[in-house]
Amino acid sequence: MKRFLVCVFALGVNVAAAVPGSLRVQGASVCHSRQAVATNDAAAFAVVPFAVPVAVPVATITQPTYFYAYGAYAASADQIVAATSRESSPDANTQRPAAADGGNDLDRRAVEVIARRCVKCHSGDEARGELMIADDSGQVAQRLPRHRILGAVEAGKMPPQHEATPLSSDEIEAIRHWARLPRDLAY
């Protein structure tokens, strides 16, 4: 005599527990806190059309959106370049507070590099490489595929050697820092 184990879930709700007595399969017995029905009848699969395999995911991990959000850095390329030129020669009275590990400065520098070196080819209707970094007005996107950009930069594919000068080691380091996971999200 064969025995079948049918797990009963409907949109994440245990039907057997939600509606006691709703499953009436001849020779069936409920086990495991009414989350499964053990039966000798193969017809139980026809009675319970929403039966799923026993392996049901117990958790879903989603990536937080703040990892890609640049909020304060989402400015047009002209604004970023203008801010960079002003910050390169600060007044004696004006000093910016430095980040504890220099992280914010490197992130800001990476976004400036992307705005200055990448927007020209990766914006507008004819963005190259299926990568849109900015819209027609030069507004830098708030969500960018960081590792894809880093991979192209480290492989020497971007910027193309026949169109632009290669990135400096400082610019590559800024992009590398910008693309890696924050310490509290690394696993």
Describe the fold and architecture.
- The chain has 187 residues and is of the alpha+beta class.
- It has 2 domains: 49 residues; 109 residues, no CATH class.
- 29% of the residues lie in helices and 7% in strands.
- The N terminus is likely disordered.
Q: What helical percentage do the residues reach? A: 25-40%
Measured distance between first and last alpha carbons: 48 Å
Strand tally, please?
4
**What structural category characterises the helix and strand content?**
alpha+beta
Output the helix-strand order: EHEEHEHHHH
**Main beta sheet, described?**
4 strands, antiparallel
Number of domains: 2
**Hey, roughly how much beta strand do the residues contain?**
5-15%
Trace the largest sheet across and list its strands: 2-3-1-4
Topology of helices and strands:
Layout: E1 4-8, H1 15-18, E2 29-31, E3 36-39, H2 44-47, E4 51-52, H3 77-88, H4 103-117, H5 146-154, H6 169-179
Antiparallel strand pairs: 1-3, 1-4, 2-3
Helix pairs in contact: 3-4, 4-6, 5-6
Keywords:
alpha+beta, disordered N terminus, globular, 7% strand, 29% helix, 187 residues, four-stranded antiparallel β-sheet, 6 helices, single chain, 2 domains
Tell me briefly what this model is:
The chain folds into 2 domains: about 5-50; about 65-90 and about 95-180, no CATH class.
